[in-house]
Amino acid sequence: MTALVFLDPDFSAGRVADAATAQLSVLDQGVTRGDGIFESALYANGVVRKLDAHLARLRVSASTSDLLIPHEEAWRAAIATAVAEFDAATPCEEAVVKLVATRGTEGTDHGTSWVMVSAAPELGRRQRESGVSVIFLDRGYDSKVAERAPWLLMGAKTLSYAVNMAALRHAKKMGADDVIFVSSDGIVLEGPTSTVLIAHRDGDTKRLITPTLETGILPGTTQGAIFTAAREAGWELGYGPLTPQNLMDAEGVWLVSSVRLLTPVNSIDGTAIARDGQLHAELTAMVDAIQ
Q1: Cβ 39 vs Cβ 54: under 8 Å
Q2: What is the mean pLDDT of residues 250-278?
Q3: Is 3-120 a domain of CATH 3.40.50.10300?
Q4: Average pLDDT across the chain, whole number
Q5: Which CATH architecture has domain 125-288?
């Protein structure tokens, strides 16, 4: 079951709709051009995790895309309604809360916005435990493109995910589970749906590193929450730039995202990656504590 609630000025708590029937115009630019933005949050233990961070990133994506979206209070009200609808029909341990805003039908002065709540994929939960095999893929542009080409909307979470999905299909054809993108000048970027983390240990010093945002990657809400917890726990933090060899030499590599959470990387391009069990356990505890 999927709970669906549209943000509608005539309905203060959002307009409940049937997700099993047609709701969008075929002329909506989110459909015809992928012209829109979204966020995906995890709903668990009665809480939509990191909601403030997701709403903040939604605003940034809207600003980057020159897209007018409803105010935050309308989103919060629609989310509350959607979660209540989902809980009443299909209570489960974890669910995905997806926020979507499109530019709407061409020629109109308003977009289309909605919230969906559906059960979290079982595969993602399994991969937290089993880990994933990944391959490096060239993303086709250098690490400076975000500076000189802002119209590419680097760092915005847009609906245009065709390339990301194609990369994942390619990985599966190659016998892998996932992808880590690398720039044409050899800098590690991100996964199609995740942020990259690596860890090092030097005696009692533990260091956590993620790729630099200056490459135009999406700022990860889960990565940000982990960094906050790690800093409080005394870890050192770093922001790249990272090369593929940095990942191969790390004591642990993870793909992190709001729904799949902390997923260890078992191998890259067929080469096994080390995993420090204690570091993984500490990071897992930090992620479990995120609200």
Answers
A1: yes
A2: 95
A3: no
A4: 94
A5: Alpha-Beta Barrel (3.20)
